[in-house]
Amino acid sequence: MKNETTMRPTIKIRILAVIAALLLGIGILRCFFVFTDFMAHTIYEESTAHLTEILHQANQTLYNKVSFNWGVMRMWAPYLERAQSDAEVSSFLTQAKEEYRFTDFFFVSRDSAYITLDGERGYLDLGQTLPQLILEQQPIVANSVVPDKPEIMVFAVPTAKGSYQGFDYEAIAITYNNKDLVDSLKISAFEGHGSTFAVLPDGRVVLDSSSEDMRGVHNILAMLKNSAGFTAEQITALQKAFAAGKNGNLEFSINGTGYYMVYGSASFQNWTILGIAPKAIVNANMNRLQYTTMAVITGIVGILAVTILLLVVQNNRQKLRKKDQQLLAREELFSNLSRNVDDVFLMIDTETGKVEYISPNVRRILGISPEAVQEDFHVLCSAGGYNCRSRLDDLMQMEQGTQQEWNRAFIHQETGEPRYIHVTGFINAVQGAKKCIVDLSDRTDEHQTTLAVEAALEVAEKASKAKTDFLSNMSHDIRTPMNAIIGITTLMKNELHQPEKLAEHLAKLESSGQLLLGIINDILDMSRIESGKTTLNVEKINLPRQISQLESVIRQQAGQRRQTFTVETHVQHENVLGDPNRLKQVLMNILSNAVKYTPNGGHIRLEIDELTHTEHYTKYRFVVQDNGIGMSEEFQKTLFEPFTREEKSGTNKVQGTGLGMAITKSIVDLMGGTIHVESTTGKGTQFEVVLEFTIDAEADTVQETQVPPEEEENASPLSGMKFLCAEDNAINAEILELLLESKGAHCKIYPNGQELVDAFASVKPGEYDMILMDVQMPVMDGLEATRRIRSGENPLGRTIPILAMTANAFLEDMQKSKDAGMDEHLSKPVDISALEQTVKRFRVTPPPENK
Known about the structure:
CATH topology of the largest domain: Heat Shock Protein 90
Number of domains: 6
Distance between the termini: 26 Å
Strand content: 15-25%
Oligomer: single chain
């Protein structure tokens, strides 16, 4: 019966350990799936937003081209009405054809019959768009086929009824090869794998700017149904969205390759513009999206500016034949316009080199007066720098119809500010004379935006790499002890009747748990250091006693590896003010690494020297030297960066997060010191830490007496103690109860602070010796419960020791506990030795003697 009673707590512990392992495994799996879903959703949203933005640019370019052609044709209509003869009409339109480079011009009747400038007649198939053109008097663009000619794209606008060569017409039309509009849809992103289509509501492709991946697609809806496996309901819904002009996006897969598709109305006709790109490269192209967008917008602005300039120049050339006063009025109008734009325009006679026009905003943009440019346009080179003169002279030598453009950094001649200018030059004929037109477009804001985007991109890439490195390191380092814990727990279930193996497994289980706790502590330390929340807790330090405590720990570690550990101390001031825990952490990190990376039988040496001192301050040098495996010069450059470990045979067997040296360097910096390392591969390593402390003058003046250490008592300080406890976690509560009982103590545990406060109201003196209080609990947390006890009616509440026992282990957590009225703060997991040492300080009644 006695053996059966003894075995029950052990069996309970094993069952609880198994349950805890299962719950932890389930929690990890759930976190993994939640994180995976979050990442997939985020990537999808960002990728489709990226593709939608690119498609919008292509859609806008197409719309601008269509609108431009309609606008030009509307300009011709009044002229055709006023023309005196068919010959005059033919001459005007022949010249327009050369200038705008369309393939054919048609006069169109209300039944789609047409006549060309040459008098050729035929039928132009405009399909369902003809009523829109003739009856609704709206401009149209449509696919059509003319006999003996390839498929063309027709732009048509309604006009007043007219007649040409006896043919009655109500509309005029020009045609382009489909390739001209296809080029408008092309996008340069996604490494040539992006495809853009203009489609009708039934899915038929009107314009096709596709990559090799989507070549040969004639109907988008049929492709999605046959190749991507879309259902009839999905196809019907998508067709309705096209017909309604809605915007949207979707994801599909063909032959194992995933694609994103976004679509939206073309803002004319009933076309829908859609873009398709492979999922695998959308993210890579997202970085280029902004540059592409900026280039498209810049190109459009440049084209519009040059077009306006050409129109004004051409208009002035025609007006010169009538009146010089009209030319001056036009020039004045253009000058007023140019004052409010960021483009400087020049017109130079190529024969004489005389500047016939310079926009007055040249002073605002470049800091040069218009009069100076009128005298000699080479004065611009004072702002343009090297090679500017030769580039401007080259413009004078161009043939008509050609142009040159380049970017150049200019300096504002009045303010000295750098300006980023896009220079465009071309030759045009004005009344038979060659004129050089130069456009100096100020792109400074766009250039600065580009630089800012590049800098932001670099920061984002570094942040992404740091996140990836963190997850990779933590996944490995946390899974390593977790694998051991779960594996050993499984083995223990199968070896319940083999005590000798259970003891060995328990030792390994404790070691893996300590390793996992160390990893978590390192991560928390690093997180707090990087967030700037780490502070120093300045206290009195007796340096020899501090080194002695450190020496006892390291000597035990070195002894297990048969290493020699020596300590040399040369100090004058033994008592200083500083943070003893942080000093111990710095030296412990360096010495522990020396033990881990020094082979069995090696030598480790710690030397402490007092370098200099003043009346109030002293400076110490701590040197740790070993004859271990050493470090390469390349690795020493990244030694103090987080998650860095040198990969070689000597280090792969040593477990660690790669955070120790980063934490050490951060603490040394926080303490205002320096750390330096010298190492040679295969020969060893030497660390040198230099720290300055305030001298504890009061302690130095008192002669310290050596007090022999107390003999250890056989009985635990917990023996005979009676504890009142608050713990909401049932497993933790049972573990605490078993630990205290194993040390001869008794306890009463409540699941929250409210119940403990209610119970304490009736506690009598001597009934309980101490309170162990969890902090985070339901109903009432430990901080509030402590405040209630300290201010309650029971006078015992003002004297009974209250210890916080919680997983909150930061300095501000400890301060909150003290502010609430707690006497001490202990961190979970419960360390029974730390609990014994703490209780010894607060215990009033000595433990009973062992008999």
